[in-house]
Amino acid sequence: MKPLFLLIWLISGSAASEYSVIMSKKVSISTLTSQQVRDVYLQKRHTIGDQTIIPVNLVGQNELRSAFESAVLGMDRNRLNAYWIKQHFQGSTPPLTQPSVESIRLFVQNVEGAMGYIPSSMVDNSVKVVYEF
Amino acid sequence: MKTVNMVTRSVGILIGLAMALHAEPYTLGQGVQVNEMVNVGGYFSTEFLAKKGQDTVSVEDVAVMAYGDINPMLSYMAELESVGFYSKNISTGVETGNQTFHVERFYGDLWLADAYNIRFGKQITPIGYWNKEPINVLRDTTSNPLYTTLLFPRFLTGIDINGYIPGVEGAHYHLFGQKNHDLDDEYINIPNTHFFGLSVEKELSSEWSSGGSVGEYTTLLSNQRTRFMQVNAKYDDALWQVMGEALMAKSEYAVSEQASAFSGYIQGMYRYAAEHAFVTRAEYFNDHHTHYKDTIGIVGYSYRPLYPVSLKGEYQWHSLNAENRFLFSFSVLF
Fold first, then answer.
1. ipTM confidence
2. Among candidates B155, B153, B234, which has minimal Cα distance to B201?
3. Which chain A residues are Cβ-neighbours of B170 within 8 angstroms?
4. Is the domain defined by A17-132 classed in CATH 1.10.8.60?
5. Architecture field, domain B2-333
6. Least confident of A121-125, B33-37, B303-307
7. B134 at the A interface (CB within 8 A)?
8. Cβ B77–A91 below 8 Å, yes or no?
9. How many CB atoms lie within 10 A of CB B261?
10. What is the pLDDT of residues B174-219, one digit of tens each?
């Protein structure tokens, strides 16, 4: 029986997501698709249902931000830069930034509709996970 | 005209105020963000055209714009542009120019829900890909396909209800209408008195998208009623971009005559480095009413030392040989 538990633990451990997209516990949204998260961060959509969403990015070049941009947005920094220049013409600006994952968690916890991404290991019961990558 | 003057003055004040308040670091191509409510920017383009008997240099567009979020549910955009700012025919030495600024866009967005948002005012007609990014610096060729300039009004002065189509992931719609003159009849490719349409877009993956539109408009001068149907598709990855659009239109003229027009293009681009790209485009245009028919082949090269700075060259072969030409442009978004 022990090897079976070990196998299940190994499989579940290796499949666990490294990062989580989080929102305030006050909102009624429970899960989102990767397309919804992508559209929110590309400022293509401002609401989910009737909830206004405020996406928050990590500031500057950061391993977690790069992982998010690659895994969820599907773009490298060059393509994203080109995208935001095009959006400037459309009257849209990139999401707000926060200096650290701790400040993202605090911001999300306190601002209804805010959305951020943090390492899954940092998730606690002050926020809810709506997507994992 | 009174409205145009008022809008012009308001935008001027807004931009002046924004400049005076500016204190944020500046990134070329992303404008100046003064605060959530005020972002300012602009663009310009210069062109060189070499054509049989007509070599011309011009400052083609000069524009300023301001936009921002008044609150999370309401945002605005205002843009003033001067087209044909300055031009000199090198062959004849004749200089022309028009430094009058016109209202290119002046609209508000009400963000209400996933499936229901409202854009009101003068805006770019939400059809296809090319028409939504019409300025030189964002394009990959200096020229526009004939499809985008001759067959439907590029701007709408009215209402666009838009949002996600419920239950269809990545699908978006625009239901738009205008039942009045353009905010500035001198500054639109087809002045019209009414314009209605529906367009849908679907993101099939992060690389693939497609869409289509139907619409109807009545021209201001000839009272000609035109109905059209349009389709578009695009593939876009880090190296390649291939996109195509086509439109079929049927018009009824005052003398009970009916005529159809068809136009389309397909364009491919290979980005062999972040700054360099080769572009090729094939176009077809056939308007049975004006008897204007042309097939165009284009090869071009695009160099962007920085993304918002664009240098482009292209050569066009036309089936109407007298229209063959070389174009070069330099444009900047700031």
1. 0.84
2. B234
3. 35, 39
4. no
5. Beta Barrel (2.40)
6. B33-37
7. no
8. yes
9. 22
10. 999 999 999 988 889 999 999 999 999 999 988 999 999 999 999 9
